[in-house]
Amino acid sequence: MRKWTLLFLAAMLAAMGITYSPAYAANTAFRLGADRAEVTAGDSVQLTVSGTGLLDVYGYEAVVTYDSDKWTFVSARNALPKGNAGESAGFAITPVTASNKVTFAFTKVGKIAGVGGDQPLAVFTFQARKAGIAAFTLSSVKVVHADVTADKFSPALQANVLVKPGDGSGSLSIYGQVNAGGALAVELGQADVLQAIQSATNGKLRISVRPENGQSFRNVEVTLPVDIVLKEGARIREIVVDTGLAVMTIPVDPARGVLSSGSRKLTLTAGKVDSSSLTSSVRNLIGNAQVFDFKLSVDGVALGALNGRPISVEVPYTLKTGEHPGQVVAYFIGGDGRPEVVKNASYRPSSGTVTFKPEHFSQYAAMYAGISFEDLTGFAWAQESVEALAAREIIAGTGSGAFQPNRSVTRAEFIRMLMGAADLIDDQAKSTFADVKAGAWYASAIASAQQLGIVKGKSDGTFGINDPITRQDMAVMIYKAAEVLKADLGTGTSAAAFSDQAAVSGYAAEAVRAMQRSGLIQGMGNGKFEPKAQANRAQAAVILYKLLTLLK
C-alpha cells in the first residue's frame, strides 16, 4: 500500500511518458496554513496546503511531517477544485502514515484540463495530544500536469500551533488504525494518561477512542496504564472509556472495584456480535437488536463475574415513535445462551443510550420490551411504573393481560418485588421464619432480607407471608433496603408531616419521615399517610420504580 501510494501519480501517469518540467515550476510557490494558532489539548486543527502560480495541475502528492508525540493524525482530503461542473470527483489514496510523516495523493480522472492559478490542494486534520508549541512542516509536493509532465518541490514550510493544557475535563482522545478484520486496537502511554490526569478537576478521567479517517469497525480494544491513575489517590474517582461502540465507566476504588492497589494495566474490549452466532431463542427475543460482547482484564487476567464490583456500561439505543423510555431494557446473554433481563438498566434520552451495571462481562443487548396491561384504566398515575417493572421482570401480571392494580399485596409478594428490584436476592440464604417454606417462590427473597436486616418478622416467629402488607411496613422495608444499598435519600422536599403521623407505629416513624422527605412515598391525597391501610399493587409498583430510579 505504501509503495502504491508514494508512486501513485507516477504509476498512473509516468507510464504515459511523464517527464519533469522545470519550466512549469518557475513561478510556483506553496503555503501551509493552520486554521487556528492556539488550541486546547484534545481539540483539532486543520492545515491547508495551497499553491500560488499553479499551472495546469492534474494531480499531486503532498507530504507533511509533525510531532507525533504532541499530535495525532486524523484525516486528509482533497481541496483542489474542479475545472468545470461536469468533472468527476477524481481519485484519492488513503493517507499513509509512518512515524511522524503523512503522505496524501490525489489525481483527476479522464481527459480533462488541469487547474491553474492560486488554489488549495489538500486539507490535513490533526488532534492535539499534549501542551506545548509544535510545528508542522510541508516537506515535499509533487505536482502532475495534464500533459503528463511533473514538478517536484521541497518547500520546507512550517506552521506553528500552540497547544494549551486541557479544560479540566480530564479528557483524552486517541485515534487508531482499523485492520482488515474491522478491529481497532489502541494502547495509551504513561505520558498520555498523565496529561489527562493533570487537567482533571471533576474526578473523572475520560478517554475517547476513534478510528483514523472515520473508518468503520466492529471490535475495539483499549489498553491503558492504571498504576499512574492509582497513585493519584482520591483525585481520580472514575475512568470513563468511550470506545466508539459503548462507554464503560470503571471506578478507581481498590477496596471495592476491579482495580487493586498493585494493578498496572487495564484492557477493555467491546465488539459487535454476529447474530448468526446466537441461539434461536435469543434471536427471537431481541429481533434486530445489536448484541455487544464486553471483556475486561487487569494485568492480563480476564474478569468474567464482577461479584458486585461496580462498573457501568452505556450502549446506543434509538427510541422509536410510540416507545416509552421506561420499557427500554438490557439483556445479559450468558454462556448457556439464555437471555436474562438486567433490572438496573435505564434509558437516557439526552444521550440516546441505555446504561446498566453488569454482573458479568459478557454479551448484552438493549431492546424494547413492549409490555402492556388491559386493566390500568383509571391508574394512569401508576402505568409507567407498572410497565417498567414488568419489563424488568420485577413484577408480573395476573394472567389474561391483567395486572389487578387495586388488589392488595401480601408481605411475601412485596418483599419478593423489593429484593428483586434491589438485586439483593441470595439463593443460598436461609430463613428461620416458621412460615417460610424452603424452595417456595418467595423463600430466597425473604431469607435474603432477613439476613441483611431488612425484615425482622413477627413476635410469633413467622413472617406473615400471606398477610396484606401495610403502608407503614412497606415504608420500613424500603428504608432498610436503601440503607443496605447505601442509597442517598437526600433531604428531599420540606413538605409538612402527614396529618396522621402520630398514628404511625414507633418502629416505622423514622422510615415514614425519611421516605416522605425523599419523595419515595406520598400521602393519600388528604394530607394523611394512612399507615395501617393495606397497600395495593399499583402503589407498590410506583414506590419500587422510584427506588429503582434512585439507585441508578
Describe the structure.
- There is one protein chain.
- The chain has 552 residues and is α+β, with helices and mostly antiparallel strands.
- The chain folds into three domains: 2-164, Immunoglobulin-like; 171-368, Chondroitinase Ac, Chain A, domain 3; 380-551, no CATH class.
- The chain is built from twelve helices and 27 strands.
- It has helices spanning 2-6, 8-13, 22-25, 190-199, 227-230, 280-286, 380-391, 411-421, 443-452, 471-484, 506-518, 537-551; strands at 19-20, 29-34, 38-40, 44-65, 71-78, 91-92, 96-98, 101-107, 115-128, 132-145, 149-153, 157-164, 171-176, 183-187, 204-211, 219-225, 238-242, 247-251, 265-273, 291-298, 301-302, 312-316, 328-333, 339-342, 346-348, 353-356, 363-368.
- The strands form three sheets. Strands 1, 2, 3, 4, 5, 6, 7, 8, 9, 10, 11 and 12 form a twelve-stranded mixed β-sheet that branches. Strands 14, 16, 19, 20, 21, 23, 24 and 27 form an eight-stranded mixed β-sheet that branches.
- Helix 7 (380-391) packs across helix 12 (537-551), helix 8 packs parallel to helix 10 (471-484) and helix 10 (471-484) packs across helix 11.
- The longest helix is centred in the last third of the chain and has 15 residues, at 537-551.
- The chain is elongated.
- The two termini are 49 Å apart.
